[in-house]
Amino acid sequence: MKKILFPTDFSDSANNAFLYALNLAKTLKAEVLVLHVYDLPMITGSINAGVIQNVYETIETGSFENFKDNIPHLKEIAKEHDLSEIPIKFILEEGNFLYNLKKLTEEEEIDFVVMGTEGNNGLQKLLFGSNTINAITSLKIPVLSVPQDISFKSYDNIGFTTIFEDRDKEALKYLIKMANRHKAKIHCMHVSKDGSYDNKALKEWKIQFENEPVIFEIIIDPDPVNAVINAIQEKQLDLLTVVRRNKGFLDKIFSPSFTKTFVNKNIVPLFVFQEQDS
Question: What is the sign of the dihedral through the CA atoms of 193, 272, 19 and 98?
Fold first, then answer.
């Protein structure tokens, strides 16, 4: 059984992303591991050791109680959306968020991570919180990031950007499973700055996926980021999927100009797959 890791701070944003995690789990017949991480503060100065210990114990107790109190609410969310059959495991960890995320991903052999992009900690980098950016850049598995103001609804149109390399096909196959469950269409988009592209590869992709709900589209635009933003609007995409190829690509996706424009238009969840080896 596949595993989906869902880190949460129990904020409204995270609870909304929880629905995306549950729906992905239903599509892939996976279980969801709910992770809550709390951090103990660094206390300095001439403070009695006993006092420090009491402070830490109080924080740990409070974190556990908060964790325990929110479990029924998450179960109720699943029940309200007819997703209570999804296996859910709850995990509480102390320490650095990213360290625990990476450790659990490896120990539990996680297949996907689903995260809300903003939460209770007030960290807002325009569209994406720093935890989400760190997860996408550090993990070797796909990460689905859900903007704060987007409520889950069934997918009708899924966007997928590609350069028609074989390494992109694994991501497309997962999207086809999602599309079939939701009766959605996948807009398989290649953005060309000057109109050139690998026509032979495109024909091969069309043959391989001819019986799937995939529409192949060539978009000519000297500004690929602008092309993607326009496609989200014009095609009314409910999800944008990209393959992270290199740091330069990610810099464009998370650049201030991109996120500012993105925020002012219709925000959609972003599904980032890591480029697979040939």
Answer: negative
Q: How far apart are CA 163 and CA 216, in angstroms?
A: 11
pLDDT in tens, 240-272: 998 876 455 555 655 555 544 554 444 788 898
Residue 115 has pLDDT above 50, yes or no: yes
* CB-neighbour burial class of residue 53 (10 A; exposed 0-12, middle 13-18, buried 19+): exposed
Sign of CA dihedral 39, 102, 171, 30: negative
Contact 3, 33 (CB under 8 A): yes
Q: What is the pLDDT of residues 24-60, one digit of tens each?
A: 999 989 999 999 887 645 544 455 444 334 443 444 4
Is there a contact between 261 and 229 (Cβ–Cβ < 8 Å)?
A: yes
Q: How far is CA 237 from the centre of its chain?
A: 16
- Asked if 152 contacts 228 with a C-beta cutoff of 8 angstroms, the reply is no
Sequence-ordered list of residues with C-beta below 8 angstroms from that of 13, at least 6 positions apart, any chain:
116, 117, 118, 119, 146, 148
